Amino acid sequence: MTTAIEDHLVDTKLSTLWLWGEFIGVILILCLIIILISIRRGHGMITSNRFKKSRILITNGTSLLSRELHHQLSTRHQCQVVLVSDSKDTTSTVQKFDLTNGNVVNLNCDMLCHQQMNSLAEYVWNELGSVDAIIDVEEEVQSDDVCDVVQQTGTNIQRFLNLVTNFAPKMHQCGGGQMVTVRSNINAAGACISSRSDVLNLMQLTHNQATNFIVNIQLTTIFLNNQGSTFNVGGLMHYLGVTSELTMAEVADRMIRGLQTGKDNLEIKSRRSLIDFIVRKLRKQDNSELLCNSNISTSLKNCQ
């Protein structure tokens, strides 16, 4: 009797251990799948380098994000980049372009003034011939006051409207292009997309291009999400010694990669997730192994 009870207890423990083993195995498989998907997104989802040697205009040229976008597009993608700063002082709008190594001098323009924006468009077209893409980096509202938020939002929409009315017709005549808006307030996503649709309809009515304008001009909105992600575990990240905030270079890189996928709406999270940390560690390990193998091969050749 005692032996039977002991055998039953042993079988129960083995069954429990087996169930726990299956549970842990499923969790590990799911984690592996998530990591593989993340790696694939980081490397294989980009359809093409659509910005290679393009001519790109970036607004809010004094911001760190705009300058980082300028740096990566000009160095990694050999683009000719125009940085436009929103300023009342327009003395530098007549500066000569310097296209050495894909760099362009900063230009100043009052982007709320339709006449100055028109002059800027004419000047850029005379110097570059055309513009393939415009990235409008909107200014972030630093105040929590409702009036300030409404005023800045209205200013951003007016700026974008001036960009569209002065640049989109020229882009359309040159074969089309892409207009990108970078917004820091993800909560205003619905209103933002609606306003872009209204602008598109306005351009169709103004220039009678209802059939071709949608095809030639792609309107893209990027939302910078500062709220982190589902996989962001602050305590664990801090314990592992990982900085949760992405660097400006990482944010710009994710924006460029996202734009290359051809999507109309993108969300860029400015906080690093635990999955990102694991993927980066795996990539660094792969790179170190490749470097080690390369050094070994070089040493063997030197010995021979």
UniProtKB/TrEMBL annotation:
Q: Read off the InterPro entries from this record.
A: NAD(P)-bd_dom_sf
Protein's recorded name: Uncharacterized protein
Species for this entry: Phlebotomus papatasi (Sandfly)
Q: What is the lineage of its organism?
A: Eukaryota, Metazoa, Ecdysozoa, Arthropoda, Hexapoda
